[in-house]
Design a protein that fits this description.
The protein is an alpha/beta fold. About 35% of the residues lie in helices and about 25% in strands. The strands form 3 sheets. It has a 5-stranded parallel sheet with strand order 1-12-11-2-10. Strands 8-7-6-5-9 form a 5-stranded antiparallel sheet. A hairpin with a 2-residue loop joins strand 6 and strand 7. Helix 1 runs antiparallel to helix 2 and helix 2 runs antiparallel to helix 3.
Length: about 300
């Protein structure tokens, strides 16, 4: 991300081409100049910065919102973004548990990837992790949906609409595609993005995470991760070289995955998740007073 600061004029133009609403375009300008507090204030004023008592509650609210939006806007693309690979992996597992519980995943097959075994089902969202300009014609970061499984072969419909047949004995660079790292999300454009903020983030990663969308992005955070760092805006405004990751994030991830796995067999419906999202506490105000739309 160190090169982002050197490419601000180019990447800023790309970001503004994504957003369609004036206040979002103004926020993207702030983010591109690393004016993180000003950009977050605009999103907070429109209900898209949501603060919770702790990181676990923030993750649960993010997943509930993701699920509710899938039902309300079935034709729109979505992505969950997190800073660390540990967060990405945990969120992917949690989303997959939700989809399995709701009967959205079909026949499964077990494939071997470069990182180990992976259970992949009909209906699964998958991420291609390495360029293949030969048979598959995919790039690192390409997303698609599994349409059928047959042994170790997958038929995948790419988000572009093209169908590819993947022999997983030959191509071993697949992973779940529900949650991505912010780094992997560079260059991506989706309708709705959900960013899980963490103390390890910087102004550069915040800029990328909050400018991948066409419709809206929502940032979720736990106050336990930012209370001793001067607040969310200050914590996300640090230069790249001053960021760090603590054990607190890893502990929270472990607890959330364990809790979700224990509850995986319990009946869960969209109504349950929407009720949980509606009951979530009111987001904390980032800046006193109302934010003013810029531009």
């Amino acid at each position: 991300f160190g090169q982002l600061a050197q490419r601000t004029s180019v990447t800023s133009l790309e970001a503004i081409q994504r957003q369609r609403v004036d206040w979002q375009r103004a926020a993207s300008e702030h983010f591109s100049r690393h004016e993180i507090g000003a950009g977050l204030a605009l999103y907070e004023a429109h209900g898209h910065v949501r603060g919770f008592d702790d990181d676990l509650s923030a993750r649960e609210a993010l997943l509930a919102q993701w699920a509710a939006d899938r039902q309300a806007h079935p034709g729109q693309t979505q992505v969950i973004l997190a800073h660390s690979n540990a967060s990405r992996e945990a969120l992917n597992q949690l989303v997959r548990q939700e989809r399995k519980a709701d009967g959205e995943l079909g026949i499964e097959t077990r494939i071997q990837t470069e990182k180990g075994a992976l259970q992949v089902a009909d209906g699964e969202r998958v991420l291609f992790g390495k360029n293949d300009y030969g048979t598959l014609q995919v790039r690192n970061g390409t997303l698609g949906t599994v349409r059928s499984v047959s042994g170790e072969a997958l038929q995948v419909e790419l988000d572009s609409g093209r169908q590819v047949s993947v022999d997983t004995r030959e191509y071993r660079h697949l992973d779940y595609g529900y949650a991505l790292t912010v780094h992997k999300g560079q260059g991506m454009t989706v309708d709705r993005a959900y960013l899980l903020a963490s103390p390890s983030m910087s102004a550069e990663t915040t800029y990328v995470g909050m400018t991948r969308h066409r419709q809206v992005a929502t940032l979720f955070y736990g106050k336990d991760g930012f209370a001793d760092r001067g607040g969310l805006a200050a914590g996300l405004s640090r230069p790249e070289h001053k960021t760090f990751a603590g054990g607190q994030e890893q502990d929270a991830l472990k607890r959330l995955v364990e809790q979700s796995a224990a509850a995986a067999t319990a009946p869960r419906t969209l109504a349950d998740r929407m009720a949980k999202a509606a009951a979530a506490r009111k987001p904390e105000q980032l800046v006193p007073g109302r934010a003013r739309t810029v531009g």
